[in-house]
């Protein structure tokens, strides 16, 4: 088995003030909605429609609470995601995307650029590859040239330009 050749490595740390602020805001929104719904529980019991609407609202806002608590956990545990782009594919944290599942890589934003991995398939979601150190346009072009030389010949579906 050939040894995987790394072309790019980076990390993303959740231990940042914006992560803390966003997580607290999400938790407060969820908490305020929960208190509102529970405070009106007796009134809602008289109307099934009102109860269903409030329950749907609370359920959707629970997602914000879950995201907020998860981000807060990542902040306090100093979670770090490692990004590696190699000859085998792209790994981010514990997720691995082989080149067979990838359509292309795109640079978003030149001032604070980060890579976006576009996956193949109709319902495949894009994956933002955030790193603490933004990627410059020059560094992106060098990466694309190296991937074009070393990865593209074995994967005709890939587009690195």
The computed structural class is alpha+beta
Can you count the beta strands? 7
For the termini, the CA-CA separation is: 29 Å
| Overall form | elongated
Numbering strands along the chain, what is their spatial order in the largest sheet? 1-2-3-4
> Low-confidence runs (pLDDT<50, min 5 residues)?
none
Q: If you average the pLDDT, what whole number results?
A: 87
Helical content band: 40-55%
Helix-strand string: EHHHEEEEEEH
Largest sheet data: 4 strands, antiparallel
Radius of gyration over alpha carbons?
21 Å
Strand content: 15-25%
Number of helices: 4
Structure description:
Helix 1 packs antiparallel against helix 3 (48-76). A 4-stranded antiparallel beta sheet has the order 1-2-3-4, covered by helices on one side. A 3-stranded antiparallel beta sheet has the order 5-6-7, covered by helices on one side. It has 161 residues and is an alpha+beta fold. The chain starts with 5 loop residues before the first strand and ends in an 11-residue tail after the last helix. The model has no long low-confidence stretch (mean pLDDT 87). It has 4 helices and 7 strands. Helices cover 43% and strands 24% of the residues.
Task: List descriptors.
161 residues; alpha+beta; 3-stranded antiparallel β-sheet; 24% strand
Topology:
Blueprint: E1 6-13, H1 17-39, H2 41-44, H3 48-76, E2 80-86, E3 89-92, E4 95-98, E5 102-108, E6 114-119, E7 127-129, H4 137-150
Antiparallel strand pairs: 1-2, 2-3, 3-4, 5-6, 6-7
